[in-house]
Amino acid sequence: MATDLHLAIAHHLLIFILFGILVSEVVLVRQSMTGDDIKRIASIDLWYGVVALLIVIVGFSRAVYGAKGWAYYSVNSFFWAKIGVFALIAVLSIWPTVKYLNWRRNSQTAGNVPDAQSVVLVRRILWLELFLFAFLPAFAAAMARGYGQ
C-alpha cells in the first residue's frame, strides 16, 4: 500500500512540475527574447525532458507495482489513450527543443535573435502541447474510475 501511495504522489507532483515548465516556456518564448532569455529557455527545456522521462518511469512503475497492477492498466483504453497523448506531446516537443538549441547557438556566436516566423511556430506548438495536456487528467480520472475496461 505504501508503495502505491508513494508512486502516486511522485507521479502527480511530476505532472504538475511538467505543466509548470510548459507554461513557463509559453510565457518566455516571445519576439523580444534576448540571448539570456534563450539560455534560460534552453535550460528550462532540459528539465522538461528530464521530468517527462521521470513521469514515464514512475508512471509505468505505478502501473506495474501499484495497487491495481498491470492487468488492470494493460487492457484499459483510457490508459493507452493517456499514453498516446503523452507520446504525442513528447513528439511535438522535439521541434521547440531543436529551435531552442539553434537559437542558443546563434545568439552566442552572432548575437542573432530568432526570426519572427520560428517564434510564432514554436509558440503554436507549445500551445498545442498545453491543449493536449488537458486530456491527461481527464483520461486519468476516467481510468481510475474503471472506464475503458
Can you walk me through this structure?
There is one protein chain. This protein has about 150 residues and is mostly helical. The chain is about 85% helix and about 0% strand. The protein has one domain. Helix 1 (about 1-30) runs antiparallel to helix 2, helix 1 (about 1-30) packs antiparallel against helix 6 (about 115-135) and helix 4 (about 75-90) packs antiparallel against helix 7. The model has no long low-confidence stretch (mean pLDDT about 95).
- Percent helix range: over 70%
Could you tell me how far the N terminus lies from the C terminus, measured between alpha carbons in angstroms? 23 Å
Q: How many strands, what sense, and barrel or not for the largest sheet? A: none
Overall, the morphology is elongated
The radius of gyration over CA amounts to: 18 Å
Low-confidence stretches: none
Strand content: under 5%
N-to-C SSE string, H for helix and E for strand: HHHHHHH
Class by SSE composition: mainly alpha
The overall average pLDDT, rounded, is: 95
With helices defined by DSSP (H or I, 4 residues minimum), what is the helix count?
Answer: 7
Give the number of domains.
1
Total strands: 0
Oligomer: single chain
